[in-house]
Design brief:
This protein is an all-alpha fold and 87 residues long. The protein has helices at residues 5-13, 19-33, 46-72.
Length: 87
């Protein structure tokens, strides 16, 4: 299944998705950007690898959960306009 922006939007707005799962993406990006790390970014390679590793694990989890959510989502409701005039 290919994920796109529409899937992300539905995932974030869905009341069936736990708030902590939504916050995981925000917190993982914040972890990569903020200067407070497990291994400081001033350590040449290891400082960046912990950020990349954390982002990889977090977004891997989110991608799997989004795919699961997309499969479980009920089909979109079809709306019929009864007031429409056909000419």
């Amino acid at each position: 299944m290919v994920m796109n922006v529409t899937h992300v939007g539905k995932y974030v707005r869905s009341p069936r998705v736990a708030r902590w799962k939504k916050m995981l993406g925000v917190l993982s990006v914040a972890y990569a950007i903020l200067p407070f790390d497990l291994i400081p970014d001033v350590v040449p390679v290891l400082g960046w690898l912990d950020d990349v590793g954390f982002l990889t694990v977090a977004f891997g989890f989110i991608a799997r959960d989004m795919a699961k959510h997309a499969k479980e989502a009920p089909p979109a409701e079809q709306v019929i306009d009864v007031n429409a005039h056909s000419e």
